């Protein structure tokens, strides 16, 4: 079912033949992956499979070694994560990439601070009230609750910090949202909230790449599942037809899903 | 999102032994307490000569250079860096200022007769040259740290030696003679505002105005502007700042440049206050400035610190020295006391940071 939709649409983000080495470690081997409008792609794989590395290459954190990245039909080169963000690609990195001594509003606006009008703005004076207001508006639109926007993140729990990082990505994304294990530190209720958020974003047409180790979550929210093992894409599963056992088997390489063609044909 | 239970202090100190938990909680507020305790001890001991308006006026004037150095140091330490070179840069700046001032204030014959026909030109240009010298040293620090990916500790330790050596070379290792005396009499000691308190004259002089204006502006910049926000963000998580598109290296160069610039300003203030550039003093100013910032609550791990805290912190060495002189105790005890307070402050900060990481 997903296939017919895919062929009709141009991918928003596409990786072609990506390779990446860390010294002797061949972390990504000829990886091809596409992200289509309005879908949730789950990227799964064992620890060390290369999921985070793929995200880092796609978003300009790591330099591209070989292969190409096509964004909205054009070949792009992101030399920094900031450039990817400027193109509308927002990422929740596995390490969150927040400044723990700043509050939620400051983190959400980090690098895009609103300045006051006129001369004070030219002098660099921040418009904290406006940033606070815009954060409030956006978070309530997305139905995200962050406990106290003016508390420094060090004083929040791991889950709350993750919430801030997710809110920041969702708030700014205009083309793609990428989330690398965004629910790792979350309880059941908060995880449910993030999954809802992922669906909401998808429903606005913005695709989401979702990395998780939690198979029930993956099957709940994904439209398509891509399996990475030892740096290679080994399977693409349709969550409507495949089972959790199939996914785990593909991740660990213990079964029939040892090549992509078998996996994708339902 | 779950609600965090309790306050920040409870969260981060919950698994510490009771006495350490207690110390951690007071660590952010202990600076004023220590300062008041020091003042009380001297006040009880030497009431007449310590506890009077004139002496407090002296303390405020004496603190002016350290306040300026501590402001720059606060920015640097908030970015999780350190600037060990400020004392030497101060010395080099004041020597350069003195030399330029003398050269432009008259012909060598004039100067030999202790006449300064063109001091109207020489004094301002000399002071500006001193400030510029500090700026150059600061930019060099920042450029080396960011371009060569060297620890700030090493680069500024190198600069400590370079600036001190250059200052000694330029001055021949002694105080620079023949500085136009008006720089002291007309500027450094000029009474801008004066009033009597209980029969004693209290004078506000240019160094005081310069120091506290700088502190005030710095506090506003740190709290209200993007420059301040980036300073905290980089110290808190440089990788996150980079991913957010902040030009971390450029910002760090600016921060070290600011520290150097302020050391240059302090060098110019030294010349104003004492009428000579001396290479013998200020060698432990880096200890004093780092202590002022850290005792004032700035974290050596980055991301935390305030200008207000550092200003209060800067008073501790100044009051100690003043009080020790008045009570006729060897003032060298000041360094001993500051060293001990510094170690305590860093220890408390470290406990706090480790507790945070355990969360
Ligand atoms: N910065 C790095 N330096 C060296 N090796 C790395 C680095 N980042 C990742 N790797 C290696 O690349 C492989 C893939 O890691 P990663 O992408 O983090 O996996 P995943 O996110 O799927 O758990 C692992 O073998 C890991 O050790
Ligand atoms: Mg990972």
Structure, explained:
The complex is a heterodimer of chains A (266) and B (359). Chain A is 36% helix and 23% strand. Chain A is an alpha/beta fold and 266 residues long. In chain A, the strands form 2 sheets. Chain A has a 6-stranded mixed sheet with strand order 6-7-8-3-9-10, with helices on both faces. A 4-stranded antiparallel sheet of chain A has the order 2-1-4-5, covered by helices on one side. In chain A, helix 7 packs parallel to helix 8. Chain A starts with a helix and ends with a helix. Mean pLDDT of chain A is 89; it is low at 1-6 and 257-266. Chain B is mainly α. Helices cover 73% and strands 3% of the residues of chain B. Chain B has a two-stranded antiparallel sheet with strand order 1-2. In chain B, helix 5 (53-78) crosses helix 15 (285-295) and helix 15 packs across helix 16. The longest helix of chain B has 29 residues, at 119-147. The radius of gyration of chain B is 22 Å and the shape is globular. Residues 1-16 of chain B have low confidence and may be disordered. The chains are: A alpha/beta (266), B mainly alpha (359). The interface between A and B is large, with 42 and 32 residues. The structure holds adenosine-5'-diphosphate and magnesium ion. The site of magnesium ion has 4 residues of chain A, from helix 2.
Give the arrangement of secondary structure elements:
The complex is a heterodimer of chains A (266) and B (359).
Chain A lengths: L1 H7 L4 E10 L2 E11 L4 E5 L6 H8 L7 E6 L2 E3 L4 H6 L2 E4 L11 H5 L9 H5 L5 H14 L16 H15 L3 E5 L7 H16 L4 E4 L3 H7 L2 E6 L2 E6 L6 H9 L7 H5 L2
Parallel strand pairs in A: 3-8, 3-9, 6-7, 7-8
Antiparallel strand pairs in A: 1-2, 1-4, 4-5, 9-10
Chain B lengths: L7 H6 L4 H10 L2 H16 L1 H4 L2 H26 L7 H19 L3 H5 L6 H29 L4 H20 L10 H7 L4 E5 L2 E5 L1 H19 L1 H11 L1 H6 L4 H27 L10 H11 L11 H20 L6 H26 L1
Helix pairs in contact in B: 2-17, 3-16, 5-11, 5-12, 5-14, 5-15, 5-16, 6-8, 6-9, 6-14, 8-9, 8-14, 10-14, 11-12, 12-14, 15-16, 15-17, 16-17
The complex binds adenosine-5'-diphosphate and magnesium ion.
The site of magnesium ion has 4 residues of chain A, from helix 2.
């Amino acid at each position: 079912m997903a296939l017919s939709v895919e062929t009709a649409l141009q991918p928003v983000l596409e990786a072609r033949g990506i390779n990446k080495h860390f010294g002797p470690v061949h972390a990504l081997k000829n990886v091809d992956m596409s992200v289509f409008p309005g879908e949730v792609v789950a990227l799964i794989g064992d620890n060390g499979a290369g999921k985070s590395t793929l995200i880092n290459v796609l978003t300009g954190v790591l330099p591209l070694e070989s292969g190409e990245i096509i964004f909205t039909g054009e070949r792009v080169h992101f030399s920094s994560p900031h450039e990817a963000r400027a193109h509308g690609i927002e990422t929740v990195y596995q390490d969150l990439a927040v400044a723990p001594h700043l509050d939620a509003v400051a983190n959400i606006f980090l690098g895009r601070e609103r300045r006051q009008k006129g001369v004070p703005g030219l002098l660099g004076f921040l418009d904290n009230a406006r940033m606070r207001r815009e954060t409030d508006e956006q978070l309530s639109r997305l139905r995200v609750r962050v406990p106290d926007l003016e508390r420094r993140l060090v004083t929040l729990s791991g889950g709350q910090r993750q919430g801030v990082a997710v809110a920041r990505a969702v708030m700014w994304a205009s083309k793609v949202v990428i989330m690398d294990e965004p629910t790792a530190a979350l309880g059941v209720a908060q995880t449910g909230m993030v999954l809802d958020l992922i669906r909401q974003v998808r429903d606005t047409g913005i695709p989401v790449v979702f990395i998780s180790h939690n198979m029930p979550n993956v099957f709940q929210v994904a439209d398509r599942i891509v399996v990475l093992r030892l740096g290679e894409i080994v399977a693409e599963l349709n969550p409507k037809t495949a089972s959790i056992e199939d996914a785990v088997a593909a991740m660990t390489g213990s079964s029939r899903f040892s090549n992509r063609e078998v996996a994708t044909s339902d | 999102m779950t609600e965090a239970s309790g306050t920040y202090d409870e969260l981060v100190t919950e698994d510490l032994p009771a006495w350490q938990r207690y110390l951690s909680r007071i660590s952010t507020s202990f600076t004023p307490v220590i300062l008041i305790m020091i003042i009380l001890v001297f006040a009880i001991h030497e009431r007449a000569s310590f506890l009077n308006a004139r002496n407090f006026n002296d303390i405020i004037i004496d603190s002016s250079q350290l306040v300026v150095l501590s402001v720059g140091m606060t920015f640097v330490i908030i970015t999780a860096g350190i600037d060990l070179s400020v004392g030497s840069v101060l010395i080099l700046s004041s020597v350069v200022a003195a030399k330029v001032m003398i050269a432009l204030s008259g012909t060598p014959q004039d100067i030999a007769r202790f006449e300064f026909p063109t001091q109207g030109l020489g004094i301002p240009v000399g002071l500006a040259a001193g400030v510029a010298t500090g700026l150059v040293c600061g930019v060099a620090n920042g450029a080396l740290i960011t371009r060569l990916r060297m620890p700030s500790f090493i680069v500024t330790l190198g600069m400590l030696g370079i600036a001190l050596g250059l200052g000694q070379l330029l001055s021949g290792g002694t105080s620079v003679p023949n500085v136009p005396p008006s720089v002291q009499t007309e500027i450094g000691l000029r009474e801008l505002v004066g009033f009597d308190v209980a029969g004693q004259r209290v004078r506000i002089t240019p160094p005081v105005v310069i120091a506290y204006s700088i502190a005030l502006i710095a506090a506003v910049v740190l709290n209200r502007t993007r420059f301040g926000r980036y300073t905290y963000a980089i110290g808190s998580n440089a990788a996150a700042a980079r991913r957010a598109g902040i030009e971390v290296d450029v910002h760090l160069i600016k921060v070290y440049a600011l520290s150097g610039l302020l050391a240059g300003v302090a060098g110019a203030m030294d010349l104003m206050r004492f009428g000579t550039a001396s290479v013998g003093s200020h060698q432990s100013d880096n200890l004093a400035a780092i202590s002022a910032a850290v005792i004032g609550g700035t974290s050596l791990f980055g991301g935390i610190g305030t200008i207000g805290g550092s200003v209060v912190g800067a008073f501790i060495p100044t009051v100690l020295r003043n009080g020790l002189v008045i009570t006729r105790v060897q003032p060298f005890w000041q360094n001993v006391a500051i060293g001990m307070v510094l170690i305590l402050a860093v220890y408390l900060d470290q406990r706090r940071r480790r507790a945070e990481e355990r969360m």
